[in-house]
Amino acid sequence: MLKLEKKTILVTGAAGFIGSNLIKRLYEDVKNVTVIGIDNMNDYYDVHLKEYRLNELSSYDSFTFIKGNIANKELIDEIFKKYGPQIVVNLAAQAGVRYSIINPDAYVEANLLGFYNILEACRHSYEGNTPVEHLVYASSSSVYGSNKKVPYSTDDKVDNPVSLYAATKKSNELMAHAYSKLYNIPSTGLRFFTVYGPAGRPDMAYFGFTDKLRAGKTIQIFNYGNCKRDFTYIDDIVTGVEKVMQKAPERKNGEDGLPVPPYALYNIGNNHPENLMDFVQILSEELVRAGVLPEDYDFEAHKELVPMQPGDVPVTYADTSALERDFNFKPSTSLREGLRKFAEWYKAFYM
Questions:
Q1: How far is the C-alpha of 191 from the C-alpha of 244, rounded, in Å?
Q2: Catalytic-role residue among 45, 99, 107, 165
Q3: CA separation for the pair 98, 164 (Å, rounded)
Q4: What is the mean pLDDT of residues 163-180?
Q5: Smaller CB count within 10 Å for the chain: N or C?
Q6: Predicted local distance difference test score (pLDDT) of residue 257
Q7: In CATH terms, is domain 8-194+233-271+317-332 a member of 3.40.50.720?
């Protein structure tokens, strides 16, 4: 087990949804931890939300925030030299499937070049006094693409991405494997499944639906409602990441005397896909309960069933047996409980 106490931890994407919640949890759970956060604060979605999350972190004395881009190699090298992080959690990425069709450049810069810079910095950390003990990085359920077999297992082949976003995330896994093999860097990739919760990403369905319903606009339900998603509440995701950080894959040599890549890959999902129509029903009930929408709101008049969007898949469903086996952990927050917390936060933040 890797102890996190007295460690310096670098979290990229620190103002993002998962990054900011992870940093908060680290300060709640770990004594004498130092966290370095980096984020480019881009305007892919409302910057005020990122500033709100960062503001929540400002009370931690040992937290240092750097506004910058992980695609800037000089900056990343400088951060590693100055702070010598022992654990690196790479959550910075250009997210979103549909946006990757509109603006592919952003994905190549952040998800490929940026991740390469992180890997290189980890590699060269072995030349100094503070080598990186564990690199944890975000992958995505999107890598499963058009796979028909469910639930999705990390043992499945993932050679059929249906979006550039998915292709960049699969590339991250391959790049990490190569660096683990060549330079003996312990790395763990985490395939996240539809993360949601308070102060989440406005481009996600639950958040976008809420904005539109509140504005009296029509929400579009893709694939005529015949979609299932393995919604995973933010607190469960953060618990999983924190547990994984403390258990780096073991360094060992194979029969040929060369290092066996200290490399691991896990799904973090709820292991319980929800039908999109049921999801919309629960969301609508919780928005009324929280007072975001009036009790007499006519939801039927604001729903439109539309075909599948390019890059989307009909089902996401995580096989989490490896996570349970290695960490004795399984996400457990129900969709209603999670959406209730989101609706209450939304009311407090926007109304």
A1: 12
A2: 165
A3: 9
A4: 96
A5: N
A6: 85
A7: yes
CB 194 within 8 A of CB 232: yes
Amino acid identity, position 336 = R
Rounded-to-integer distance, Cα 13 and Cα 68, Å: 10
Structure tokens at 61: 């004395």
For residue 56, how many other CB atoms are within 10 A of its CB? 14
- Main-chain dihedrals φ then ψ at residue 4, nearest 5 degrees: -90, -15
Taking residues 291-297, report their average pLDDT. Answer: 97
Tokens of 316: 């996401």
- 228-229 and 232-233 strand pairing: unpaired
pLDDT digits (tens, 9 = 90+) for 63-99: 999 999 999 999 999 999 999 999 999 999 998 888 8
- Return the C-alpha torsion angle 141, 116, 136, 99, nearest 10: -30
Bridge pairing between strands 263-268 and 232-233? unpaired
Does the active-site annotation cover 263?
Answer: no
The predicted-structure confidence for 94-130, as pLDDT tens digits, reads as follows: 988 888 989 999 999 999 999 999 999 999 998 887 8
Smallest Cα–Cα separation from 141: which of 121, 156, 123? 156
Cα separation, 199 vs 207, in Å, equals 9
Buried b (16+ CB within 10 A) or exposed e, 128-160: eeebbbbbbbbbbbbbbbebeebbbebeeebee
pTM: 0.96
CB proximity list for 189: less than 8 A, separation 6 or greater: 136, 137, 138, 139, 172, 173, 176, 264, 265, 266
